[in-house]
Task: structure prediction
Amino acid sequence: MGMDILKSATRKNKVYIRIKSECKFIPDISVFPLYCTCCNAPQSKLYEHLGSRYGQVGTAICEKCGKEICVTDHDNIVASIYINNYPSNEIFFNKLYLLDWKFVDKLDEFPIKNTLEKVTEELKKYDGNFINVDELREIIENIINIKTDGKMRFITDERFSILPDDINRWIELLYRAKIDIPAKVV
Ligand SMILES: [Zn+2]
Result:
């Protein structure tokens, strides 16, 4: 229970596939960056979510000012976290990680015909299940025939200075597919 600084790259973020309902997929996040709400310093390390108890995830100490950064959540599926302030400072992972169907939906404009239909059909096989973000990316990569190398780094919110590897690579896929995304290459 709680949270810890990420020590190995094996920890994977997931999505819960709900293709037959409106949401399409919901992020279930286990690795996340932090920033200090006191001095605004982005923290240089990633943290891993080890499970919350009564909404308490854990506390980090700001690398710059030494103040506490308390993380809480409110769900079994970690689609968002609160940093220091509940409920005003909620960080939504569909926005921070671009894990949102609205970007997949843009494959409608992809130069290969029926791309969106193919992706939707393939993902239907996983309806009601969790899959890793890496698996989600590979499914789409195979259909649109675009390969990522995992070497690109992105920023989607200036408050955070780093994103997890699987998330950077997911965003790389969107970027290489020429989908219009709110992300900056770093
Ligand atoms: Zn601070």
